[in-house]
């Protein structure tokens, strides 16, 4: 976290306040992220950004949602503000708050406000983790109004053309009763990122893990076996991330067996019975 801030004068209910906002450089994606598209998501996202429509990215854990959004921000040449959502996140955490600064009161922008000021891509990661009362603040930003009312400043910010709201969530966890209301979700254009096709996933593993193509294909085949186990009680199949980890262990000299045991079998479940099932499926391929 940089301590550098941009300071300007603002007005809160007619009184002058110091406004502190993180500088845009903090949010620029400088290096092009490596991203292999699964389908037409790059095209859909680009058009949604052009049409100023907010984007919802659905998919299980570790299939490239965050990487995709980072790659798109870079491609569109827009800064990226990421917020990892959780239950304790409050509306003020997002929007900002007053701080007593010596004699003076200063307003410190939260990430949402900073993103609006900078015309950034605002990425709310795992948005179903956030409470509903927190998400109320994004409503006027997600429809045609594209504005952020900041009650405590008595001000309304209008989002510049570059501002784009993006949220991701894992539909597998939706049953936990926290699912998105229709009035929220129907404002968004949705992109589904599932487990990638074998060829795409192998390509990701070669680059991200540094394994040869044959090893990559083997890992992908193992993953294919393990992803069919929902009916056997495996709630979350292995995402690409777990395969990247297995691949890195292999690339650094660990045996395929040990790597799969460490990065797949033991991480995917604590149940010994289920681990036995996973182990057998790994052995089928190795
Ligand atoms: N399509 C892809 N292109 C490049 N890397 C990918 C892709 N999908 C997954 N990965 C790899 O998997 C890891 C996890 O992806 P991430 O975007 O963090 O997943 P998610 O946000 O869906 O949980 C990334 O760090 C990257 O190594
Ligand atoms: Mg993510």
**How do the SSEs run, as a string of H and E?**
EEHEHEHEEHEHHEEEHEHHHHH
How far apart are the termini?
43 Å
Tell me the number of strands. 11
Largest sheet: 5 strands, parallel
What's the CATH H-level homologous superfamily of the largest domain?
P-loop containing nucleotide triphosphate hydrolases
Integer average pLDDT: 91
Helix content: 25-40%
Widest sheet, order of strands: 4-7-10-3-11
Alpha-beta content class: alpha/beta
Q: Can you describe what's shown?
A:
The chain has 286 residues and is an alpha/beta fold. It has two domains: 187 residues, P-loop containing nucleotide triphosphate hydrolases (Rossmann fold), CATH 3.40.50; 88 residues. The protein contains twelve helices and eleven strands. The strands form three sheets. A five-stranded parallel β-sheet has the order 4-7-10-3-11, with helices on both faces. A hairpin with a 4-residue loop joins strand 8 and strand 9. The longest helix has 14 residues. It is elongated, with a radius of gyration of 22 Å. The chain starts with 5 loop residues before the first strand and ends with a helix. The mean pLDDT is 91. Bound molecules: adenosine-5'-diphosphate and magnesium ion (MG). Magnesium ion binds next to helix 2.
């Amino acid at each position: 976290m940089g301590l550098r801030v941009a300071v300007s004068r603002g007005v809160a209910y007619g009184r002058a306040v110091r406004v502190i906002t993180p500088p845009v450089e903090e949010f620029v994606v400088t290096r092009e992220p490596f991203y292999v598209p699964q389908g037409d998501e790059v095209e859909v996202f680009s058009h949604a950004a052009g049409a100023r429509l907010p984007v919802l990215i659905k998919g299980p854990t570790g299939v490239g949602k965050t990487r995709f959004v980072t790659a798109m921000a870079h491609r569109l040449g827009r800064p990226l503000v990421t917020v990892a959502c959780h239950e304790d996140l409050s509306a003020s955490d997002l929007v900002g708050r007053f701080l007593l600064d010596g004699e003076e009161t200063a307003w410190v922008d939260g990430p949402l406000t900073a993103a609006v000021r900078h015309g950034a891509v605002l990425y709310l990661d795992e948005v179903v983790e956030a409470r509903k009362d927190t998400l109320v603040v994004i409503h006027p930003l997600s429809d045609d109004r594209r504005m952020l009312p900041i009650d405590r400043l008595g001000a309304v910010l209008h989002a510049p053309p570059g501002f784009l709201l993006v949220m991701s969530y894992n539909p597998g966890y939706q049953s936990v009763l926290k699912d998105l209301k229709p009035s929220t979700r129907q404002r968004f254009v949705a992109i589904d990122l599932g487990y990638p096709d074998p060829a795409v996933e192998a390509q990701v593993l070669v680059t991200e893990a540094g394994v040869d193509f044959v090893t990559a294909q083997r890992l992908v085949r193992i993953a294919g076996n393990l992803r069919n186990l929902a009916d056997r009680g495996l709630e979350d199949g292995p995402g690409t991330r777990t395969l990247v980890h297995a691949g890195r262990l292999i690339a650094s000299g660990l045996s395929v067996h040990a790597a799969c045991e460490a990065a797949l079998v033991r991480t995917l479940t604590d149940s010994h019975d289920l681990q036995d099932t996973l182990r057998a499926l790994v052995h089928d391929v190795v």
